[in-house]
């Protein structure tokens, strides 16, 4: 379990975990959490690339705590590296339980590094102008 007090990076997206996104345990499906992370990270990468990006790699994916229906899911991201055509973003997901009486304190549930590649109109890698 993480003793990290605050998320790394900026808040990129905020949404509520819904019943349609549960797994067989009744918790939120990891694939849905990953899609939130990919989307959030891509918003940051779009700004850096000044255009379209494609996800080329995900590493160090870690799910540390389950996400429950009704949790507020916050996706944070920090720019780690800008290469010739690639952008690496550290993405963290934090939740804030708001539907339970003891709710209030946020905590980290997942983190990963996402690598995006700036692409042109043909989907080919494009040099990032900074
Ligand atoms: C993204 C894509 C256009 C890149 O094309 P490519 O021919 O693999 O690109 P390159 O080999 O020239 O690499 C481009 C950059 O990505 C980096 N890269 C490629 N594969 C990588 C990997 N597995 N991990 C980390 N970085 C990687 C390269 O180091 C390079 O970075 P740099 O230019 O900053 O030095 C192509 O792989 C693609 O279309 N992938 C599918 C994208 C997609 O649909 N994603 C959604 C599915 S989840």
UniProtKB/TrEMBL annotation:
UniProt keyword GTP-binding, yes or no: no
Coiled coil residues, start to end: none
Domain HotDog ACOT-type: 7-122
The keyword Hydrolase appears for this protein: yes
Any GO BP annotation: fatty acid catabolic process
MF terms (GO), sorted A to Z: long-chain fatty acyl-CoA hydrolase activity
Protein name according to UniProt: Acyl-CoA esterase
Organism: Oceanisphaera profunda
């Amino acid at each position: 379990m993480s003793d990290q007090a605050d998320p790394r990076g900026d808040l990129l997206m905020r949404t509520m975990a819904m019943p349609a996104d549960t797994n067989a345990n009744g918790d939120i499906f990891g694939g849905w959490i990953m899609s939130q992370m990919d989307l959030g990270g891509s918003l940051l990468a779009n700004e850096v690339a000044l255009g379209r990006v494609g996800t080329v790699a995900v590493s160090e994916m870690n799910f540390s705590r389950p996400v429950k229906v009704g949790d507020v899911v916050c996706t944070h991201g920090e720019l780690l590296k800008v290469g010739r055509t690639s952008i690496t973003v550290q993405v963290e997901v934090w939740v804030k339980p708001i539907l339970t009486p003891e709710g209030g304190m946020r905590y980290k549930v997942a983190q990963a590094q996402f690598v995006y590649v700036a692409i042109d109109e043909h989907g080919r890698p494009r040099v990032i102008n900074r």
